[in-house]
Task: structure prediction
Amino acid sequence: MKRIDQIIIRPLLTEKATAMNEESNTFAFEVGKSTTKIEIKEAVQALFGVKVDQVRTMVVRGKVKRFGRYFGKRPNWKKALVTVADGEDLNFYSGL
Result:
C-alpha cells in the first residue's frame, strides 16, 4: 500500500468545495494520479477517523498557458470528492 501522503496530497479549500461541504457533507482533495477510490477511502478513514460513504474521482486537465511568446501546459491532476456519513465531520487542521 502507498503512504498516506502519496494518496492525499492536500485538501481543496475553495468556495465551491466549502459549499459542497455545507450542503452535502462532501469534501474535496487533490490526490495522487494513480490512486484508486478504495485507497482514497481507506486513507481518509485512517487519517481523519470518519466513515466514508462515497468517493468520486476526476482527472482535471492542465491548462495551456503562455510564457512570453512560448506556450506551455500545466500538469494534469486528480481530484477526489469524498462524502462522509451523516453526523461525521472532518477537521483539516488536526489530521494533516
User: Anything to note?
Assistant: Helices lie at 4-7, 15-24, 37-48, 92-95.
